[in-house]
């Protein structure tokens, strides 16, 4: 489930990449401006931001990354699905962002037209939130309200951005047309406290069942999670590219 949150994290990384390469006078000493298309430089800057700037840096507009604040996540699956549930995750906070590392970058060249990709990975990403759940998981009923912990083990996140260019007042801007996210994980670990009004035996059994069948659960939830996260990231990324000309973000 947590992959959604994971991915919001990626949005901040994307924004950071962009904000990172503004004029050299505005950059922190440990971040250097990148030439457009210089994958190695972009990756180094992303990793510097994630490792050293996770508490935020107003000098280039970076908000706090650890913990990472996100909007509420609401998922509803109808009765024909293996996971026929209504799940609300309220006040979610993501942890593990500072351990993310960029592995690969494609695009972000002199011309912003086309597809751009960023691949980021971490040992683990954890989402802590208040939750409310009701419905059926595979063959078992589930109901509860309380605190939840959803952890993705060894997530690898791929961000795909399809964009076009726009010229305005002598500047080139990137207009995002589509923003997509995919996430592969080695394992997903879930813990929902206070299931069935605090019935410990039932709660322990359901939590064990969820973790034993994590692959089936992840397969059912990943698309709505991807969509929710991608939409949130898209809004933020569009604002960055709308505000800052592409030719000021990267040296072209």
TrEMBL record:
BP-aspect Gene Ontology terms: circadian rhythm
Gene Ontology CC terms, in alphabetical order: extracellular space
Keyword Signal: yes
Keyword line: Biological rhythms, Signal
Keyword NAD appears in the UniProt entry: no
Superkingdom in the source lineage: Eukaryota
InterPro entries: Haemolymph_juvenile_hormone-bd, To_sf
Family affiliation: Belongs to the TO family.
UniProt name for this protein: Protein takeout
Organism, scientific name: Bactrocera latifrons
């Amino acid at each position: 489930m947590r992959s959604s949150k994971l991915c919001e994290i990626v949005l901040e990384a994307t924004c950071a990449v962009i904000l990172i390469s503004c004029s050299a006078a505005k950059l922190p000493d440990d971040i250097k401006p990148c030439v457009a298309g210089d994958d190695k430089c972009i990756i180094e800057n992303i990793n510097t931001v994630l490792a050293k700037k996770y508490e935020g840096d107003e000098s280039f507009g970076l908000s706090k990354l650890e913990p990472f604040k996100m909007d509420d996540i609401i998922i509803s699956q109808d009765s024909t699905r293996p996971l026929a549930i209504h799940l609300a995750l309220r006040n979610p906070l993501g942890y593990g962002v500072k351990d993310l590392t960029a592995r690969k970058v494609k695009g972000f060249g002199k011309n912003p037209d086309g597809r751009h990709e960023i691949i980021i990975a971490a040992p683990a990403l954890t989402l802590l939130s208040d939750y409310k759940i009701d419905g059926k998981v595979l063959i078992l009923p589930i109901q509860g309200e309380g605190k939840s912990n959803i952890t993705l083990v060894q997530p690898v996140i791929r961000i795909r951005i399809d964009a076009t260019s726009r010229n305005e007042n002598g500047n080139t801007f990137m207009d995002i047309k589509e923003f997509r996210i995919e996430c592969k994980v080695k394992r997903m670990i879930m813990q929902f406290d206070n299931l069935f009004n605090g019935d410990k035996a039932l709660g322990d059994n359901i939590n064990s069942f969820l973790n034993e069948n994590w692959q089936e659960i992840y397969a059912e939830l990943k698309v709505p999670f991807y969509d929710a996260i991608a939409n949130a990231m898209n809004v933020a990324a569009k604002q960055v590219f709308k505000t800052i000309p592409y030719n000021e973000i990267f040296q072209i």
